[in-house]
Amino acid sequence: MVVLKRRKNHERPFHTFPVDCCDDTADLLAHLFYNKYRQYTKRVVGSYEDATTGTTCYHVWLLVDSYIVDITGDQYNNDSILDVKCPAVYVGIMDDFHLQFANLGIEENYIGIDGLGKHSHERLYSLYNTIMEYYDSLLV
Length: 140
What we know:
The protein is 31% helix and 26% strand. By secondary structure, it is of the alpha+beta class. It has one domain (2-131). It has a five-stranded antiparallel β-sheet with strand order 4-3-2-1-5, covered by helices on one side.
């Protein structure tokens, strides 16, 4: 995601990554897993109540097989409501950080961008294509 921060004409919301980016990030990662590796994912949405503001806060991550893949959980590390913090990249089993989120909704066989409504396609494909410009060189 550093690539997206460096671009002059960055797309909202990635200029604040990881803050407020979990939804789009999950879509982009799911699209990558499906299109590059034919790996279905599950999209998980969790929430918690912020008693100080009375608002419901949401977080989105993926399950690949039975492993959590979350590259935006660290956006909550300055949040005083959540006691357990998350590393910048988490791949593993259910942990104390993710257990803090209630009302989990799980979307099965999630494939990312192509599973969304057409209103998101152009914006997310633009982001995805930007990431893919650098993806292969990062794997070397």
